[in-house]
Amino acid sequence: MLTVAGFACTKDNLQEIYEMDFPMRKYKIPNYCITDPVFFKDYKQYENNNDSVENVIINIKCFITNDMKEINLKISNKSNGKDVKQQLAKIENKKLDLYKCRLFFQGQEILDEHQLFYHNLKDNSKIQVLFNKIN
């Protein structure tokens, strides 16, 4: 299918492709474009184990794709996706009622109610952040 569109893979997967007519034009495809970004683990199972997880402050690296910049954020592993979005919106001076914010870790979306330990975020984990203006 890629060859019909004039593209080919640089590796043995879809994460990096190039134009066959212009091999210098390479494109990186994020994991969430290739796989379903919905996290299918049973969240209720993790919610029930919440008390057994130690509360630890972790440093996460937030790569904001819109601005191509990285922000270091210190936050509890028991914080949820909404907490992360609120802190990033404050740092970036973006109002969440004007912007939709999405967080991804290893190709899976971190939903508002999901605590970070649920996605196995640890110290120095990197997440991808997308801010899109709401029309």
Identify the notable features of this structure and list them briefly.
alpha+beta, Ubiquitin-like (UB roll), 5-stranded mixed beta sheet, 3-stranded antiparallel beta sheet, 8 strands
What does it look like?
With 135 residues, the protein is α+β, with helices and mostly antiparallel strands. The protein folds into two domains: 30 residues, no CATH class; 91 residues, Phosphatidylinositol 3-kinase Catalytic Subunit, Chain A, domain 1 (Ubiquitin-like (UB roll), Roll). Helix content is 16%, strand content 33%. The chain is built from three helices and eight strands; from the N terminus they run βββααββαβββ. The strands form two sheets. It has a five-stranded mixed sheet, with helices on one face. A three-stranded antiparallel sheet has the order 1-2-3, with no helix packed on it. Strand 1 and strand 2 form a beta hairpin. The longest helix is centred in the middle third of the chain and has 12 residues. It is globular, with a radius of gyration of 17 Å. The two termini are 33 Å apart. The model has no long low-confidence stretch (mean pLDDT 84).
